[in-house]
Design goal:
With 128 residues, this protein is mainly β. It is built from no helices and 11 strands. 0% of the residues lie in helices and 48% in strands. Strands 2, 4, 5, 6, 9, 10 and 11 form a 7-stranded mixed beta sheet that branches. Strands 1-3-8-7 form a 4-stranded antiparallel beta sheet, with no helix packed on it. A hairpin with a 6-residue loop joins strand 4 and strand 5.
């Protein structure tokens, strides 16, 4: 079905910025909302936010609101997660996921059960 590959993770200092990419292949994701999740070792997976299939709406968890921005370029079948003012507590593996259904009318909060395709994750490590 949909293949998702995250990239852009890395190691940086607190206060820095990083942009993650979620590139889809095999089929278009233009009719699907896309979410971002993160998971630190030994901790529960956390919903970060999502963007509607149109790109016109976004939702963010309180923990990242005002610092993270999700965008998409459907012509490139890619979704981005721009992360600014990073904190050590943002350290996690970040995953993107495509909605299990098309044309979702509202976004969040969403859970992993709402998504049907997942990327392999990319590590983000923020030092202090």
């Amino acid at each position: 079905q949909v293949r998702l590959v995250e990239s852009g993770g890395g190691l940086l200092q607190a206060g820095g910025s990083l942009r993650l990419s979620c590139a889809a292949s095999a089929r278009s994701i233009s009719t699907y909302a896309v979410g971002w999740f993160r998971q630190a070792p030994g901790k529960e997976r956390e919903f970060v936010g999502a963007i509607s299939w149109t790109g016109g709406s976004t939702y963010y968890a309180d923990s990242v609101k005002g610092r993270f921005t999700i965008s998409r370029v459907n012509a490139k079948n890619t979704v981005f997660l721009q992360m600014n003012s990073l904190k050590p507590e943002d350290t996690a593996v970040y995953y993107c996921a495509a909605d299990a259904s098309q044309f979702r009318t509202q976004l969040g909060p969403l859970t992993g059960a709402d998504f049907g395709s997942w990327g392999q994750g990319t590590q983000v490590t923020v030092s202090s």
